[in-house]
Amino acid sequence: MFDRHLQKFTQKPLAFLGGMLLKKISANQVSLIGFIFGILMCICISLQLFSFALFFLILNRVCDGLDGVMARMTTPTHLGSYLDIVFDFIIYSGFVLVFGLFDTSNLLISSILLFSYICTGTTFLTQAIIQPKIDKFQNNESFDDEISKGFLYTAGLIEGTETILFMLLCLLFPDIFMFFGLIFSFLCLLTATSRIIIFYKKNNL
User: Fold this and answer.
1) What is the pLDDT along the chain (205 residues), one digit of tens a residue?
2) Alpha carbon of 204 to those of 42, 144, 195, 201: distances in Å?
């Protein structure tokens, strides 16, 4: 919901940093480094080292912003787009998984969260695959992004910014993970439902 608004403030500093990094490493290498930071975050959560987990989450998200900016400064590739979305979904689900594993009282809400993630992820990726074909057939450019991406980005109530906020709150206040998880699960399911309804109304011609 807030992704496009936030990008107005993050793109310039990311472009400055990305321009310097391109002299040493590629955008795909930054994606891999960010993924490693995400794995380290999950390990720290499992050990209940939440301050370290918060540090690695920030590094992971910075890399996630950098790789896209760096790719657009050079030549975006299908591999880069693939790694971007795959690594994000692995880290998002891993985050929820480890919260359920280190404290079994979180297992129920972790399971609900993973279900809601599958719902939002499925509606997001399925539309990313199908909608461009429909738009091409109808010669409709209604999904024009301010910042070009390697896949169709479908807006919704819960996007990257809201997910990061949820993760930050869980790491800052791990004792009330169940409370945050319940609210976030509801919002994810609401997002998935709204996407299905909107897609149905738009394409049920």
Assistant:
1) 545 655 665 667 777 677 777 778 888 999 999 999 999 999 999 999 999 999 999 999 999 988 888 888 887 788 888 998 999 999 999 999 999 999 999 999 999 999 999 999 898 888 877 766 666 656 655 444 445 555 455 566 778 789 999 999 999 999 999 999 999 999 999 999 998 988 888 877 6
2) 42, 21, 14, 6
- Residue boundaries of the structural domains of the chain: 3-203
Q: What fold is seen in the domain 3-203?
A: Four Helix Bundle (Hemerythrin (Met), subunit A) (1.20.120)
